Amino acid sequence: MHVKIAPSILSADHGNMTEEAVRAEKWGADWLHVDIMDGRFAPNLTFGPGLVRAIRPKVSIPLDCHLMLAEPEKYVQRFIDAGANYITVHAEAVTKDSLLEIQEMIRRSDRELGIAFKPATPLSLINIADYDASLILVMSVNPGFSGQKFMPEIIPKIREASEIYARPSKRQVEIEVDGGVDSSNVSLLCQNGATVLVAGNSVFGQRDQEGAFKELREIIGASA
Ligand code: DX5
Ligand code: ZN
């Protein structure tokens, strides 16, 4: 099975975002991870739909937009219009009604819905089987910043998510792990059912970024 790597441009050079996206695609990135934070849900401010719109025509890989926003239903349509492919909202930031509303917007536009969980949030916070999600994002650091330390206590949650969707009747759902992913833990993540690995600091934060990306790819290939 091909486990995907999604470099996170939160750790890239903010003065050259479209070029950074193009470089990641050339290394062989499967997706590009775009962290959207509002200073309310997450203690940081990052990007808006304008950046997604700017990057969209420059690369052909999917744009994986991780919305760390309070009241995400107010903003989802703007990310759809900007060209986001995967739009992931936080389980802690929605109600059943707002998540159904978001799902409907995404479905109408033929994009993919993701549902994210902070490290301390159990998957049982919502009944994920009630929604048509294409992706479950398990955070392995608290939302906010790149370069934080991986929290190994989330490993059982990755396994639990992958088991929910491993049942034969269910369709393929991506299990994405986000935060502190690096060469020391990617094998373990793959073995526990992760299908998409977000890599910020472990790629863009390195002196030899392309070399760091290729090293991750090799380790993942050896553990698949
Ligand atoms: C954290 C973000 C992550 C971040 C990961 O709030 O959701 O996507 O970019 O960065 P690293 O890989 O450096 O932990
Ligand atoms: Zn993220």
Provide structural commentary:
By secondary structure, the protein is α/β, with parallel strands linked by helices. The protein has one domain: TIM Barrel (Alpha-Beta Barrel). The protein contains 8 helices and 8 strands. The protein has an 8-stranded parallel sheet. Helix 4 (96-108) links the parallel strand 4 (86-90) and strand 5 (112-117). The radius of gyration is 16 Å and the shape is globular. The model has no long low-confidence stretch (mean pLDDT 96). Zinc ion (ZN) binds at residues 8, 33, 35, 66, 178, 198.
Task: Give helix and strand order, one letter per element, not per position.
Answer: EHEHEHEHEEHEHEHH
What is the name of the CATH topology?
Answer: TIM Barrel
Taken from the alpha-carbon principal axes, the silhouette is globular
Number of strands: 8
- The pLDDT mean sits at 96
Strand order of the largest sheet: 1-8-7-6-5-4-3-2
Helical amount: 25-40%
Portion in strands: 15-25%
CATH superfamily: Aldolase class I
- Name given to the CATH architecture: Alpha-Beta Barrel
Number of domains: 1
Rg estimate, integer Å: 16 Å
Flag low-confidence runs: none
SS-based structural class?
Answer: alpha/beta
The first-level CATH class name: Alpha Beta
N-C termini distance: 6 Å
List the bound ligands: D-xylitol-5-phosphate, zinc ion
The major sheet is characterized as:
8 strands, parallel
Briefly characterize the structure.
The longest helix is centred in the last third of the chain and has 15 residues, at 209-223. The chain has eight helices and eight strands; from the N terminus they run E-H-E-H-E-H-E-H-E-E-H-E-H-E-H-H. With 224 residues, it is an alpha/beta fold.
